[in-house]
Design a protein that fits this description.
This protein has 12 helices and 11 strands. By secondary structure, the chain is of the alpha/beta class. The chain has a 5-stranded mixed beta sheet with strand order 3-10-9-4-7, covered by helices on one side. A two-stranded antiparallel ribbon has the order 1-2. The protein is globular, with a radius of gyration of 21 Å.
């Protein structure tokens, strides 16, 4: 769940993305380990960009593409930027109004308004969903295609009837881009996991509190700090048992991919033993891929704003009810949900993770390769 911890602060991999002034490894050159670009792309296929802009969004462009970019920069980008800022500001003011004279929930260093009730909560949720969809529209996502496969089944694969008492405690999604968050906010307005510093950001900080984000600080050594897994497990169980509690939105891969692969799942989302709702996101493209894989944040946003039309496809699977064996083995539960999502979404299973992504980014930039650290499940 590493990526959710920084998603709302601008994305999970912005700090690892290459700086534009760094040298870009080409097909004929090699990194410190002697590997060429082709070898690296084969090894780290889950993070390889395949759109018209090439590796790290810095490939050579045709004259026609440069002309289109130039036109978009002086027309689309200013309009979209202003519209996006206005949407964010208006929703912030709505959240500020709805939280006036309200005392936030405070628990173990957390502070949120997720459990507001009555008209305040209704306004925050409805306006939040509308604002998120409006933001996606500004970014060029005019239509969202949803394949709701949960409508074609009345029973889960374990033969248990789905009802209100068995509502999922968490939404499980593959992670392709920071845009995933906007889609999920527009669809179900769930809670996320975010870095503690997000709560102090202008505008976004208050919005994240209204979402009910769990703020984490991995380096914290405080004895009363429950850790990511403990906080997430508690919230997932609460959402499962109380229909008025917001569901958790979790990206168990821990980082973003190019959208064609599914990385190993960390078990933090499955420790609560509660049912989960699997969703699969895809971003079909012709020129620019909205996937945030091996491209810097600023370059990605600019190229995204320059693209007149973008697309999202969503596959909504039936609620997954864990068997007794899966409840006792979170790793088995996670692996089975992962395999189901890969099969239903046509995704390729990959055994690499965030550590390998950092190695790939460093190699592209000509840096010395970082040590691949052992990644523990949250």
């Amino acid at each position: 769940m590493a990526t959710e911890m920084n998603s709302l602060s601008g994305g999970g991999d912005g700090g690892e993305a290459a700086k534009d002034e760094r040298p870009l490894l080409n097909s004929s050159s090699s990194n410190g380990s002697g590997e060429t670009l082709e070898q690296l792309e084969k090894k780290y296929a889950a993070y390889v960009r395949k759109d018209a802009y090439g590796t790290m969004g810095r490939g050579k462009l045709a004259i026609s593409e440069k002309v289109l970019l130039g036109i978009a920069i002086v027309t689309l980008v200013p309009i979209r930027f202003v519209a996006g800022v206005l949407i964010l500001l208006v929703y912030y003011l709505i959240c500020r109004f709805c939280t006036l004279f309200s005392v936030p929930n405070r628990d173990d260093g957390q502070e949120d308004y997720a459990h507001m009730v009555g008209w305040r909560r209704e306004v925050v949720v409805r306006c939040g969903r509308f604002s998120s969809r409006a933001m996606l529209f500004v970014f060029g996502f005019y239509w969202i295609r949803v394949d709701d496969r949960s409508l074609s089944t009345t029973e889960d694969e374990h033969g248990e009837q789905s009802d209100e008492t068995e509502r999922p405690g968490a939404i499980i999604s593959n992670h392709v881009s920071y845009l995933d968050i906007l889609y999920h906010m527009s669809s179900s307005f769930p809670s996320f996991v975010a870095k503690r510093s997000v709560a102090r950001l202008p505008l976004v900080g208050l919005i994240s509190k209204c979402l009910g984000c769990i703020y984490v600080q991995r380096e914290s050594k405080a004895s009363d700090f429950k850790g990511v897994s403990g906080a997430v497990t508690e919230r997932v169980q609460d959402a499962h048992q109380n229909k008025h509690s917001p569901m958790m939105m979790l990206f168990p891969e821990g980082t973003t991919t190019n959208g064609d692969y599914l990385l190993p799942f960390k078990t933090g989302a499955f420790l609560a033993k509660a049912p989960v709702l699997p969703l699969i996101l895809r971003y079909p493209y012709k020129r620019f891929s909205p996937a945030w894989d091996s491209i810097s944040g600023m370059r990605h946003v600019l190229l995204l704003l320059c693209q007149f039309m973008n697309h999202i496809e969503v596959v909504r699977l039936p609620v997954y009810y864990p068997s007794e064996q899966e409840k006792e083995d979170a790793k088995l539960y996670a692996n089975n949900v992962r395999k189901l999502m890969a099969t239903e979404g046509g995704l390729v299973l990959s055994d690499i993770g965030l550590a390998e992504k950092r190695v790939y980014h460093a190699a592209l930039n000509g840096n010395s390769l970082p040590r691949v650290l052992h990644q523990k499940d949250d």
